Amino acid sequence: MSAFAALAATTGLLIGGGVAELAAHRRKLYQIPVRIHVNGTRGKSSVARLIAAGLRNAGKRTCCKTTGTLPRMIMPDGSEYPVFRPAKANVIEQIRIVAATAEIDADALVLECMALIPSLQWLCEDKLVRATHAVITNAREDHLDVMGPGGRDVAKALAGMVPVGGKLYTAEQVYLDVFEKVCRDRKCELIAVGDAEVAAITPLDLAGFSYVEHAENVALALKVCQAVGVEKGAALPGMWRALPDPGAMTAHEMDFFGRQINFVNGFAANDPQSTERIWRLALERYADVEKRIAVFNCRSDRPDRSRQLGTVVAQWPAADHYLLIGSGTYIFAKYAVKAGLDPQKMVFAEDHPAEDIFESIVELTGRRSLAMGMANIGGVGLEVVRYFANRSTVRTFK
């Protein structure tokens, strides 16, 4: 056999094997009646968990896989297991999740979209999920190095996972026209959750959560549950009982030798708009503190995020100190000072472990202080949250 013939034969076998594998995956996929694909810039892990919890509480056998702070597979009884990854995260792992869900005859699967690269957004939907219901929580200016350069470009990238002939639910309003155009092209029904539906989520509805949940996330999740036949009265109690994503916004209050320290976990809010919103919420909740400490967890592999936040932080309500942790802190500092932030307010704790960061915060506090984590939950961010959580009481902003 010639080299060309051998190459052609090998190529044919590979293509044939791929076609057979895709066909097997599709058979398992269509065994799952309800497939909910969740995407967006902020809140997609929380919304995926909320939807799955609402469906579970109504008696639907529901699996859920999130890729948020820590990748998790959530089973129909609410138990959670870490998703095994022999190497880096890869969208192909969704095939294993579908197979596991089909094997236990689940009624529904809620999948958080893993893709960032625009071309992979469509690939994940068309080849791996084929959603009956798609969700795009919102479109904010984040991951601009992949989906940018601007917010509208992010919306266009996220719209890649709009299913053909399905339904798309979103709480996005600024770039809603982007989703409308794609939905028309793919004959997908667009259901937008507006201000009125968000306002209908009452303080009493939110009071049942053990962490800080946003009204738009709850409204969006309830809308999807309703579409699957589960009304608010059945879905919401299940949502209250569900475990939050490790990156969910929580407040940890502690008395450290006479010093009252209130630590707010806002690390998972990576984009400037969400981070500023949470910072203002924290300042409102702890209005009587003596010291305000903004803790920025930088990542050298996320320079664009550090640049974005550094450029705008001087425009926010001021902190007394800005504690820079993680790696690549000079990027944030460079743009923050250029934007007008007082460099004397910056404290550098690059590459410090969580216990040293805690000590740095203690040194900066007064008798009653607020410290809020921002920018990145990955790396030392999650370790800092755990450090405070193990030494304090978890509260919500009520």
Automatic annotation (TrEMBL):
One of its GO terms (cellular component) is membrane. Its EC number is 6.3.2.-. Keywords: Ligase. It comes from the Bacteria. GO terms for molecular function: acid-amino acid ligase activity; ATP binding. InterPro entries: Capsule_biosynth_CapB, Mur-like_cat_sf, Mur_ligase_cen, MurCDEF_pg_biosynth. One of its GO terms (biological process) is capsule polysaccharide biosynthetic process. Residues 38-148 form the Mur ligase central domain. This is Poly-gamma-glutamate synthase subunit PgsB/CapB. It comes from Lacipirellula parvula.
